Amino acid sequence: MTMHFTRLSRAGAIAALLAILQATAGPTLPAAVGAARSACGAFAVVPSPTFKGYSGLNAVSGDSHRDVWAVGSDILKHTYHNVVEHWNGHVWSLAHMDANANLTDPVAPGLARPGLQGVDALSPKDVWAVGQDANRFPMIEHWNGVRWKVVRSPQPGEGGGLLAIGGRSPSALWAVGEYNPGKTSGEVRTLIEHWNRKRWIRIAA
Question: What is the pTM of this model?
């Protein structure tokens, strides 16, 4: 299946992340969107890697027009796979893919499915991606210019996931999502995590 870019549907998580980022000052969102339209012109479908399973991309970020990353997931033979694609200025290529979780595993009510949901590219050697791991807990991965590596992060409650990530500098990154205090309760609470260049910490919401 060929993957195409689609609009992110996690409006609540994106709104929360934008509120955090705007609180640190900087250009307004409408101004940024207007500038992007003026610089880039019209959007067009671009060929990307094809997968045998049911695939989708959830987020995209780049630090330049020759260094862009997209993340999502692929479902093949009842197994979720994390998917990372990279744009080098000419073509999209598969940069990373690994098995995540079995499709038949139980999932806490209201929580996101396993896979990568958000990405933030700060530089060619500093890219972050967030989502949900095979155990249905928040997951954060980091690209250091050589390889992707899972980074330890807070694991509240009995399940959860991160839906978006963003920041204005390598020392001021924020990730937002949700978690469930009990797998059978059906309750979903807001999850905010912050990177201070040393570790990820949970921020009360």
Answer: 0.76
